[in-house]
Write a structure and sequence with these properties.
Layout (H helix, E strand, L loop, with lengths): L24 H11 L2 H6 L4 E2 L10 E6 L16 H6 L3 H21 L7 E3 L22 H16 L9 E7 L12 E2 L3 H17 L5 E4 L3 E2 L2 E2 L5 H4 L10 E3 L4 H6 L8 H11 L12 H12 L5 H17 L22 H13 L2 E5 L13 E5 L21 H6 L3 E5 L3 E7 L5 E3 L10 E4 L8 E5 L5 E5 L5 E4 L5 E5 L11 E5 L5 E5 L14 E4 L5 E5 L8 E7 L1 H10 L3 E7 L19 H13 L3 E6 L15 E5 L6 H9 L28 H4 L23 E8 L3 E3 L3 E10 L5 E11 L10 E10 L4 E9 L5 E3 L4 E3 L3 E7 L2 E8 L12 E2 L5 E3 L2 E4 L6 E5 L5 E8 L4 E9 L5 E7 L5 E8 L9 E6 L6 E8 L3 E10 L1
Parallel strand pairs: 2-3, 3-4, 4-6, 5-7, 6-9, 11-12, 11-25, 25-26, 26-27, 29-37
Antiparallel strand pairs: 1-2, 7-8, 10-27, 13-16, 13-24, 14-15, 16-17, 18-19, 20-21, 22-23, 28-30, 30-33, 31-32, 31-36, 34-35, 36-37, 38-48, 39-42, 40-41, 41-48, 42-47, 43-46, 43-48, 44-45, 44-47
Organism: Saccharothrix coeruleofusca
InterPro entries: BXL, CBM6, Cellulose-bd_IV, Fn3-like, Galactose-bd-like_sf, GH, Glyco_hydro_3_C, Glyco_hydro_3_C_sf
Family: Belongs to the glycosyl hydrolase 3 family.
């Protein structure tokens, strides 16, 4: 959050060069940096930068959250979740959303400059590699091109279109290869070079290269054994994508993890010095208390771990951003300085929120043209389901100034009957015979087992979120049951919320037919929580956590007061159409620090869908979630299925706009919807080419494919044509296709261009998105859609020479059902030259090994963790004979050996290299061994007999 709280400027300061907006930016930065004392410079490297009154500098803070609107600062326009914004496939629309977000950030800043800053931590551009990632809702797509286009649009909107000044400053999160929440500070994302360059880095490069972002945030995880906060690529790669200054920030406590959970450095001084050397400019540590960071950096300087020149460089990056935000200029020069709080949730912003929420709706299925609904024939609609009459905010959501639920939005179009489809139960304690009762107060109170009979105060509505997890809402006051600080059960929560989400429970059936109530909040996994997670009834009748086992817990009889399925069926039977709104709760079904265990639809919600469909053949299912669903629910006889993200304040009206045909469903999926969790790899498998995942490499039959989405009309693709059928590596081809609306109503189509390289030295994607355009066509209208495809866009990372390469090959270009062949005259990758030093990480294939850090500062090596693991180097030219092989190795374990085999891991052995104990994983030595019978073009395999590390190797010819 950039805080520009200005102290009064001394009169003499008006003459200082850094305050002259007509001077070049570099001159102004130099002037201001030269006036700062060493201590003042260090103070600027923390998230909370203090004011420097003697120079008239105000305080400055990085880190306003703004993923889909401004968050955490009060009521603001809340747009669809980030994954929903991407599902529009509409960069122009997303740029408008970004512009509103930047404008409202300025409005908040004007309201409270000391708290509300202009450095925005958005967007998240980590590719959505695995739908089980808890933060899936925060990202855009499993495809790096689509992610790049949408993030560029959002970033451009945030920063504004002025050539000099920034409206606000977007920061990309989280660099790099971050897709796992469990143990995220200690997980090492193992990513081979080609996937790292072509997939993970590619998603970040788009917005940086387009100057649509002003910085990046380092991620919590390690990448190939090295913590991201000390990844030298921050400075050496990311900054190379642009000629503008970037402010590189740490994530909260990311630098502390270097000494804490990661144990990468012995002291914070060493850790902070390494982070600055790697390119980090701003530490996000200890909340507003900058003292520990300042002390560590000063210690690093005093011990010679850090040079003053490195501090000065980081300060320049900080100051550059503050200058571009207009902090040191007269308000009249900065076009954004006059924005006031009145812009927050302005009428035009609300209208844009409604449009964005409608544009991101995906029509997954529409058998027999069940949709759109006809206003003439649809007089009464049953709106059913756990999400039918509520809207949920997520962890990074803003506070909705109002909420139009699906039920409310549809009620503006037709008469409505409704049921949430959840069981209302009463819990009767076996020991006392009393029922659990709740307070009718708006603020709630401790639940007590003191009601002699069921009544108004004893009803508990059970919401099923899957994996056995439920939330309990009390009928007494409509509030959700939570825990207070003494671990009592209280009915005081408006919705599940908080870091540990203390509104989660499980009703656990016991062998005798009774139930115990188990607390399932996220904090039960914390070491300080303790064993007591089962509910007991105290002597005063109060419910609290007090038992470590089900046997020691209080037992209850679960009495169903009203069956959710029966209520749903009753509502459906009396309606012309039933709309079932099912889905996720963003604080429960995965979020930051909590990956989801399954992508299946909760069984309780599935039961409601099946029952409603049986009761009313005109059933429409709306899935509301921040991630794809798997399962067999789609095999049910459902006429129509829609998907929406948690789409913000206008969700209900937007859904009604689509259901009744005011807007054609223009959304298209940005992720593969797999049929089963079994189709997914281990979450720690980041090599998507090896595991065969995302649409690029998946060869199975998805439930719904990447890019899928239907319209209320139909389209015909014709005359796919290329302006040339062969192109050189530095050339480009123009691709044109005619798209015709063949239906009787206006509609939206997303025209997608894919390519597939038909022959290659490496495993190529099944297909890969190269371009797209969203078009709106009236009935019978034809439009020619044009794309320009550069041959350079077809390049991939060549590990044999550490550079991108355009191979000579034929490419199949695909648009809709049409295909054309394009011959690309690039180059043929020559045989490997192992006579020069070859990084071991640049293998062509592998089994079992992992990638690790060569040193704490830089480099990536290969490590074997068990005997029999291997790495392969295809098509190596060993000439007339190879004499010997030299390996640069480290080995903290017992002495071992590495075998050299040809043709395969079990192929002919031509050499064995003894690997001694080196005493430390960073203690490297070179070992050699003769080779016999190694000649010609060969696939060379290095097979480990035990644990060891290889950095580089060289084969010497005779």
């Amino acid at each position: 959050m950039a805080v520009l709280a200005l102290s009064p400027t001394p009169a003499h300061a008006q003459r200082e060069p850094f305050r002259d907006p007509d001077l070049p930016l570099a001159v102004r930065i130099d002037d201001l940096a030269g006036r700062l004392t060493p201590d003042e410079k260090i103070s600027l490297l923390h998230q909370y930068q203090p004011a420097i009154p003697r120079l008239g500098l105000g305080a400055f803070r990085t880190g306003t959250e703004a993923l889909h609107g401004v968050a955490w600062l009060g009521e603001a326009t809340v747009f669809p979740q980030a994954v929903g914004l991407a599902t529009t496939w509409d960069p122009d629309l997303v740029e408008r959303v970004g512009a509103v977000t930047g404008r409202e950030a300025r409005g908040f800043h004007a309201r409270d400059p000391a708290a509300n800053g202009l450095n925005l931590w958005a967007p998240v551009v980590n590719p959505l590699r695995d739908p089980r990632w808890g933060r899936n809702e925060e990202g855009y797509s499993e495809d790096p091109l689509l992610t790049g286009r949408i993030s560029t649009a959002y970033g451009h909107g945030i920063r504004g279109d002025h050539p000099t000044y920034l409206q606000a400053a977007p920061t990309l999160k989280h660099y790099l290869a971050y897709n796992v929440e469990r143990d995220r500070a200690t997980v090492s994302s193992v990513v081979p070079p080609r996937i790292l360059h072509d997939y993970d880095e590619a998603a970040f490069k788009h917005a940086i290269a387009a100057n649509a972002a002003t910085g990046v945030m380092a991620s919590y995880n390690l990448v190939n054994g090295r913590p991201a906060h000390v990844n030298p690529d921050l400075d050496e790669v990311v900054r190379g994508w642009t000629d503008q200054d970037l402010l590189i920030v740490g994530d909260a406590s990311g630098a502390a993890n270097l000494v804490g959970a990661q144990r990468y450095f012995a002291t914070q001084a060493e850790a902070n010095a390494a982070a600055v050397e790697a390119g980090l400019d701003s530490f996000t540590e200890n909340g507003p208390d900058s003292a520990p960071t300042v002390a560590a950096l000063n210690t690093a300087l005093a011990r010679g771990l850090l040079d003053q020149s490195e501090v000065d460089e980081a300060v320049r990056h900080v100051l550059s951003l503050r200058f571009r935000l207009g902090e040191f200029d007269p308000p009249g020069r900065n076009p954004y300085a006059g924005i006031t709080p009145e812009v927050i949730n302005a009428p035009e912003h609300r209208a844009l929120a409604r449009r964005a929420a409608a544009e991101q709706v995906v029509l997954l299925r529409n058998d027999g043209n069940a949709l759109p609904l006809s206003a003439e024939s649809t007089k009464k609609v049953a709106v059913i389901g756990q999400l039918a009459d509520t809207l949920y905010e997520d962890w990074y959501s803003g506070t909705m100034p109002y909420r139009v639920t699906p039920k409310q939005g549809i009620a503006e179009r037709a008469a409505v009957s409704s049921s949430e489809g959840v069981d209302r139960i009463a819990l009767k304690e076996l020991a006392s015979g009393n029922y659990v009762a709740a307070s009718t107060s708006d603020t709630g109170a401790v639940l007590t087992a003191d009601a002699p009979a069921p009544g108004e105060r004893t009803g508990l509505d059970v919401f099923d979120w899957g994996e056995g997890t439920v939330t309990l809402r009390t009928a007494a006051n409509g509030r959700t049951v939570s825990l207070d600080q003494n671990r009592n059960l209280v009915n005081d929560a408006a919705q599940p919320h908080g870091w540990f989400v203390q509104q989660q429970f499980e009703l656990v059936a016991q062998p005798d037919g009774a139930y115990v109530l188990e607390y399932a909040g996220n904090d039960v996994d914390e070491p300080w929580f303790g064993p007591d997670k089962y509910v007991v009834v105290g002597a005063d009748g109060g419910l609290s956590l007090g038992a470590a086992t089900p046997q020691a817990a209080s037992k209850f009889v679960r009495e169903v007061v009203r069956a959710g399925v029966d209520s749903a069926v009753a509502a459906a039977k009396e309606a012309d159409v039933a709309v079932v709104v099912a889905g996720s709760m963003p604080f429960i079904n995965g979020r930051e620090d909590d990956d989801r265990e399954t992508t299946a639809l909760p069984a309780g919600q599935r039961a409601v869908i099946d029952a409603v469909r049986a009761a009313n053949p005109r059933t429409v299912v709306v899935l509301e979630s921040g991630y794809p669903y798997s399962g067999d629910w789609d095999t049910a006889d459902l006429p129509a299925i829609l998907w929406t993200s948690h789409a913000g304040q206008e969700t209900g009206r937007a859904l009604a706009d689509v259901l009744f045909g005011d807007r054609d469903p223009g959304g298209r999926l940005t992720q593969t919807w797999y049929r089963s969790d079994a189709d997914l790899p281990d979450m720690l498998q980041f090599d998507i080419a090896e595991s065969g995942h995302t649409y690029q490499y998946f060869r199975g039959d998805p439930l719904y494919p990447f890019g899928h989405g239907l319209s209320y009309t139909s389209f015909r693709y014709s005359r796919l044509r290329l302006d040339r059928h062969a192109v050189g590596a530095d050339g480009e081809v123009r691709v044109e296709v005619d798209v015709t609306n063949t239906g009787g109503r206006a509609g939206v189509e997303v025209v997608q261009l894919y390519s597939r390289q038909e022959r290659s030295r490496v495993r190529q994607p099944v297909k890969q998105l190269r371009a797209f355009e969203k078009v709106r066509l009236g009935p019978g209208e034809t439009r020619t859609v044009r794309f320009t495809l550069r041959a350079a866009d077809l390049a991939f990372w060549d590990v044999t020479r550490d550079k991108p390469v355009v191979e000579t090959a034929s490419h199949e270009l695909v648009v809709g059902p049409l295909t054309r062949e394009l011959a690309v005259r690039g180059e043929r990758i020559p045989p490997r030259d192992l006579g020069r030093s070859t990084p071991a990480q640049n293998f062509d294939d592998y089994s079992g090994v992992t990638l690790v850090d060569t040193t704490r500062e830089r480099g990536t090596a290969v490590a074997a963790t068990a005997p029999g693991q291997w790495i392969a180097f295809r098509d190596a030219d060993l000439g007339r004979g190879a004499r010997s092989i030299s390996l640069r190795v480290a080995n903290p374990d017992e002495p071992t050996r590495v075998q050299v085999r040809l043709g395969g891991p079990d192929g002919r052995r031509v050499g064995v290299v003894d690997v001694p104990t080196t005493g430390d994983q960073y203690a490297w030595t070179t070992v050699s061994a003769p080779l016999r019978g190694a000649a010609g073009r060969q696939d060379v395999h290095l097979v480990f007999e035990g644990r060891a590390r290889i950095d580089t190797f060289t084969v010497e010819e005779q």
